Amino acid sequence: MTEKSSNISNTVKPIFLIGFMGSGKTTLCNALTTRTNLKTIDLDDYVEKEAGMSIKEYFSLHGEDSFRHLESESLKKAAAEGYDIIACGGGTPCFNNNMELMNRLGETVYLHVPEERLFSRLVIARDRRPLIAQLDDDSLRRFIIDKIAEREIYYRKALSIFDTSRLEDEEQIEQTSALFIEKYL
Question: For residues 14 and 17, what is the distance between their CA atoms, to the nearest angstrom?
């Protein structure tokens, strides 16, 4: 299915895609954008627009605390603007009562992926992610284990869990997005 699905109507409440960095939030959101008539946004893109710079630059200039505040404000604005699907940053649910806000405003879906799959994805994308850009492979593995242990308490507050370990090529993306559409839309 490469055309937008005409039988999918807009959701009443937004669906928030949450999960660890590399879990496929952006990939799935982009796939849903091309396959449905839904209004979707990647929160990182929204934050960058609000900040007028990349997240990496913002982090560098203002630090994580300031970024998390901007991220929370952007989340509220995006939800108020009527987006059907919002792909959140990996840390979004863990700060400023964002998880409670998302559960109140819509449906939260935790995109779950095994740690080894996360590692293989993050090794490739590490230079674009400020929290892991300077980590070697061993440090990256430890970071993933530690951060998931820290964040899992927030992720598990999601109303639903969806496996996104199969997003490695177009065929897998097609199959996974079709399963998501069938289950949630």
Answer: 10
The stretch 103-132 carries a mean pLDDT of 94
- Residue 30: closest CA among 85, 91, 75: 85
The pLDDT tens digits for 20-65 are 999 999 999 999 999 999 999 999 999 999 999 998 899 889 999 9
Rounded Cα–Cα distance for residues 153 and 157 (Å): 7
Specify the range with the lowest mean pLDDT, choosing from 17-21, 54-58, 170-174: 54-58
* φ/ψ of residue 20, rounded to 5: -65, 155
- Residue 61: predicted pLDDT: 96
Give the Å distances, CA to CA, from 84 to 12, 167, 179.
8, 21, 17
Q: What is the pLDDT of residues 3-16, one digit of tens each?
A: 344 344 444 799 99
With the C-alpha atoms ordered 97, 128, 107, 78, is the resulting torsion angle positive or negative? Answer: positive
Contact status, residue 103 vs residue 159, Cβ threshold 8 Å: yes
Cα separation, 71 vs 90, in Å, equals 11
Pairing of strands 40-42, 85-87: parallel
Domains of the chain, CATH where assigned: 15-180 (3.40.50.300)
Which residues are 17's β-sheet partners? 87, 109
